[in-house]
Amino acid sequence: MAQGADPAGSPSAYAAAGVDIAAGERAVDLMKRHVARTARPEQMADASGFAGLFRLDVSKYTAPVLATSTDGVGTKVMLAQELDAHGTIGQDLVAMVVDDLVVAGAEPLYMTDYIAVGKVVPERVAEIVGGIAEGCARAGCALIGGETAEHPGAMGPGEYDLAGAATGVVEADAVLGPDRVRPGDAVIAMASSGPHSNGYSLIRRVVDTAGLDLRAHVPAFGRTLGEELLEPTRIYAKDCLELAERVGVHAFAHITGGGLAANLERSLPPTADADVDRSTWAPQPVFGLIADEGGVERADMESAFNMGVGMAALVDGADADAALELLADRGVPAWRAGTVTEGSGRVRMHGSYREHA
Which residues, at least 6 apart from 331, have a Cβ–Cβ distance to it below 8 Å? Predict the structure, then answer.
C-alpha cells in the first residue's frame, strides 16, 4: 500500500491536507549521500534516528568549553526560490552559524538543520541539504541530524525557510574576546564573497523598485545579477582556527547584520578603539550597483552590508605580517585595515573606499 493512502486506495486525511509522507521519506533517502560527506570519527550511530549522537573525546582537552550558535539565512532564500537555484543556500546557513562559533576560538564540531517547506519536493530538499553538507565539509563539522517539515497552507508550494544550530569546543584558556585586545593590535580584514546573507530585504527592494532583471548578464560581474546575489557566503572557520593556532590572535569579529563598525565594536574592550581606513580596500562592484540603483547613502550601506569585509581579526601588531602571509597561503584575500588605539570601545571609520579595478 502506498504511503498516504487508506486500504481502499483513497487518499488519507493527512495527504488530503497537503502532507506527503512518501515524498518526505524519499527526500531523506536522497540527502543521505550528502550527509555522509560530513562524517567525523566522534559521531555515534543512533538506531532510532531521533537524535544525533557525538562522543566528545575529553582526553584531547584540559578544560573544554562548549560553544553554541544558531541562525538562519533570511530573505536571501526568496531570491533562490525566484531563480529556482537551491544548491548554495545551505552553505549560507552553515556560514552564518559556524563563523559565529570561531569568533570565540571554538572549533565547530557538529550541526543540525531545520527546513520548513510548503510542499516536499524531494529533489529540491536534497539540493538544499547538499549545500548544507558542502558548508559543513568546508567548516570541518559533522551534519549529524535535521528535520524537514511540510507546512501546507502556511507556506506556498515553492516556498521554504531554513535554520540551523551548531556546537563547538574551545579550551577555557583559549577563549578569544575583547578582554584580550590591546592598543597596538592590528585590524586584519578578510574579504567577503559579496553581501553574504545580510541586507537582502534592502537588496530585494532595490531590485523591485529599480526594475532590475535578475537573469540579465552584468558585465562588471561576468555573470547574471541573480548569480552574483546568490554567491554563497564565504566560510572562514578553518582559516580562523589556523590563524589562532599560529599567530597572536586576540579576537575575531564576524561581519554580519549591522556592518563592519557595529560588529567590530562587539570585539573591543571599553578601553580601546579601532581606527579603520576605508582606503585600504575596494568593495565588490555589487555594492556599488545596490547603492547607485537604490540611491542608498554610504551610512545606510555600511549599516546593512559588510562592504567587502566578511571577518576581521584583531591580532598582535607584531604578528600582522605573519597573519597576512598565512591567510594568503590559504587563499583568503586579506589586508591590514586599521589599528587598535586607546579609547572607549568605538570603531572610527575614515577615508574613502578605493574604486574597484
Answer: none
Helices 285-294 and 200-209 meet at what angle, rounded to 10? Answer: 60
Q: Which residues contact 49 (CB under 8 A, 6 or more apart)?
A: none
| Nearest Cα to Cα of residue 193 among 161, 227, 219 | 227
Q: SS3 letters for the chain?
A: CCCCECCCCCECHHHHCCCCHHHHHHHHHHHHHHHHCCCCCCEECCCCCCCCEECCCHHHCCCEEEEEEEEECCCHHHHHHHHCCCCCHHHHHHHHHHHHHHHHCCEEEEEEEEEEECCCCHHHHHHHHHHHHHHHHHHCCEEEEEEEEECECCECCCCEEEEEEEEEEEEHHHCCCHHHCCCCCEEEEEECCCCCCCCHHHHHHHHHHCCCCCCCEECCCCEEHHHHHCCCCCCCHHHHHHHHHHCCEEEEEECCCCHHHHHHHCCCCCCEEEEEEHHHCCCCHHHHHHHHHHCCCHHHHHHHCCCCEEEEEEECHHHHHHHHHHHHHCCCCEEEEEEEEECCCCEEEECCCCCCC
What confidence score (pLDDT) does residue 330 get?
Answer: 98
CB 251 within 8 A of CB 178: yes
pTM of the model: 0.91
Separation between Cα atoms, residue 126 and residue 262, nearest integer Å:
36
Span 86-124, pLDDT tens digits: 999 999 999 999 999 999 999 999 999 999 999 999 899
Q: 3-state secondary structure string, 236-270? A: CHHHHHHHHHHCCEEEEEECCCCHHHHHHHCCCCC
